[in-house]
Design a protein that fits this description.
Its EC number is 2.7.1.-. Keywords: ATP-binding, Disulfide bond, Kinase, Nucleotide-binding, Rhamnose metabolism, Transferase. The chain is α/β, with parallel strands linked by helices. Helix content is 37%, strand content 22%. It has 17 helices and 20 strands. Helix 2 packs across helix 4 and helix 12 crosses helix 14. The structure holds beta-L-fructofuranose (LFR). The site of beta-L-fructofuranose has 12 residues, from helix 9 and strand 15. Beta-L-fructofuranose (LFR) binds next to helix 9 and strand 15.
Length: 473
């Protein structure tokens, strides 16, 4: 009885995928069915996503998934956070904005004029990121004329099923959910002039959203059920971190590096605010107490720039191998500098930061790559130590999951700089978390499965690679 197949839709900032997850006797197997590119698109009024294209790829991918695996029982959808689509009379008003669009600066000013950041933090427990949804709303002239705002995974679910919901983990990244009561903060909405009607009811991961309807059902081939998962990709990834002790920290590393620990209760102390740590909602009411570190974005934007210069593509694993032999002094910069947030010529911007810091700019691409990786590792290690201090935990191991777990140089330098072992993997944490929450909803892990049950079930299958800290680093 205990098993079956589900489909996971996982949308990242640079690509999206549809996967089949097969679960049997606690074992889990993933099969990628479709992968499609994603990225910012410049419109007259700023950076957007090509959501319409994403949706087409999703529907085509789901149809292919069902062809390959007719027993698929449900669909779960996760994506990056904070971004939303606006609806008017049920129709999308415009392609959603991309969170790296710089219009949000105006929104930050407007919101902080009404409520200083310290007051906001006490309410929503969120680290300051200029693109948190509440700032985006304040800068988006189309919000006033809309009757619904749906976060990206909820928007996909709506188009598929017709149901309008706000999945809780992702809703927590809007800045509009009260961190103590776990509901939309009505008072905050009023002060920010946001109609309470704009936001649909919150729904828990594991709940049924609805069945495919109309065109979606026809194209996919069956009236499949959509189940809410940890629809914030980071929430799904954390489900699949094989943590076995409260003294474990995690880094969910893709475009971003989300560095922190899992808690039962939020920490909204002045120190947490000053360190810009966030209390995002996890699956089962857990708290993702973490800090956003600019992750592989720096490397992918640098490589993109170099590829444009060369007019040919770069083989990243090769570049990273070469970078690991660049052993002379490695200058580092602040990976979190806000000037590195927008798309653009990353090598020049980084060179400027290095010069500002009185450091020499590496001359070769290998050495430059080493500087980028070490700077990310340094920011990771700092965030791990800060998380330990803020939560008074004796952190003694760091799990790295996501694409970054395959980056050996990054894992090793993170271990070196944190002074503790790094356990790398699974690389597919987000998709695994998405699949596990659906599988649990179907009862395939028994009636009382906790996150610990799920983590234990997959621990044997995805055993991590261990990196010991090198003492001399
Ligand atoms: C990671 C992520 C982060 C969020 C950022 C922007 O993919 O979801 O958790 O802060 O993207 O949405």
């Amino acid at each position: 009885t205990a098993g079956g197949a589900v489909a996971a839709v996982d949308l990242g900032a640079t690509s999206g995928r549809v996967m089949i997850g097969r679960v049997s006797a606690g074992a889990l197997e993933l099969e990628q069915v479709a992968r499609f590119p994603n990225g910012p698109v410049q419109h007259n009024d700023g950076l957007h996503w090509d959501f319409t294209a994403l949706y087409e790829h999703i529907v085509a991918g789901l149809a292919e998934a069902l062809r390959r695996e007719p027993s698929i029982a449900s669909i779960g959808i996760d994506s990056w956070a904070v971004d939303y689509g606006l609806l008017r009379d049920g129709e999308m008003v415009t392609e959603p904005f991309h969170y790296r669009d710089d219009r949000t600066a105006v929104g930050v000013e407007r919101v902080h004029d009404e409520l200083p950041f310290a007051d906001l933090y006490r309410r929503n427990g969120l680290q300051f990121l200029p693109f948190n949804t509440l700032y985006q709303f304040a800068a988006d002239s189309k919000v006033a004329g809309a009757d619904r705002a749906l976060l990206i995974p909820d928007l996909v679910a709506y188009l598929l099923t017709g149901a309008q919901i706000a999945e809780r983990t992702n809703a927590s990244t809007t800045g509009l959910v009260n961190v103590r009561i776990g509901e939309w903060d009505a008072d905050l909405l009023e002060r920010l002039n946001i109609s309470a009607e704009l936001l649909p009811a919150l729904v828990e991961p594991g709940a049924s959203v609805g069945r495919l309807r109309g065109d979606a059902e026809e194209r996919v081939g069956a009236p499949l059920e959509v189940i809410a998962v940890g629809s914030h990709d980071t929430a799904s990834a954390i489900v699949a971190v094989p943590m076995t002790s409260p003294n474990a920290a995690y880094i969910s590393c893709g475009t971003w590096g989300l560095v922190g620990v899992e808690l039962d209760h939020p920490v909204i102390s002045d120190a947490a605010r000053a360190a810009n740590f966030t209390n995002e909602g996890g699956v089962d009411g857990r708290v993702r107490f973490l800090h956003n570190v600019t992750g592989l974005w720096l490397l992918s934007e640098a490589v993109r720039t170099w590829e444009q210069e060369d007019g040919s593509s770069i083989h990243l694993p090769e570049l990273l191998d070469a970078a690991s032999f660049a052993t002379t002094d490695v200058p580092t910069f602040d990976a979190n500098d806000p000037r590195l947030a927008a798309p653009g010529d990353m090598p020049s911007r980084i060179a400027e930061l290095l010069r500002e810091g009185g450091q020499t700019v590496p001359k070769t691409r290998e050495a430059f790559t080493r500087t980028i990786v070490e700077s990310i590792a340094k920011a990771f290690a700092d965030a791990v130590h800060t998380a330990a201090a803020l939560t008074e935990r004796a952190i003694d191991v760091v799990h790295v999951v996501g694409g970054g777990s395959l980056n050996r140089l990054l894992c090793q330098t993170t271990a070196d700089r944190a002074g503790m072992p790094v356990l790398a993997g699974p690389v597919e944490a987000t998709a695994i978390g998405n699949v596990l929450v659906q599988a649990r909803a179907h009862g395939w892990f028994g009636p009382d499965a906790t996150l610990e049950t799920l983590r234990a079930a997959i621990a044997s299958e995805f055993s991590p690679v261990r990196y010991e800290p090198r003492g001399d680093a």
